Amino acid sequence: MRIAWFAWLARNFGAYGYGDGPLRAAIGTGAVLVTAALLWCALHRNRPAAVAAAGLTCALGIGWLAFH
Fold it and tell me: How many CA atoms lie within 13 A of 45 on its CB side?
């Protein structure tokens, strides 16, 4: 499931930006949050790494959406 999600996100990376309207922005933000949650679940045994990876994913993903 996780690998399939990352593959789908890589294929559609440029399709969900804040400049494309509120629906696409909401979908893009949701995709970033789901990706961060999957990283958290993948690294749940190492809590500091899970927090760092999820936080970095949120910051970079939402930042990319904002300036894309």
Answer: 1
The reported pTM is 0.74
Q: CA 9 to CA 12: how far, in whole Å?
A: 5
Helix (H, G, I), strand (E, B) or coil at 55: helix
Whether the per-residue pLDDT at 6 is higher than 90: the answer is: no
> Residue 15 and residue 32: Cα distance in Å, rounded?
13
Give pLDDT tens digits for 9-22.
777 766 667 677 78
Q: How far apart are CA 2 and CA 56, in angstroms?
A: 18
Identity of the amino acid at 67: F
Distance between CA atoms of residues 31 and 42, nearest Å:
16
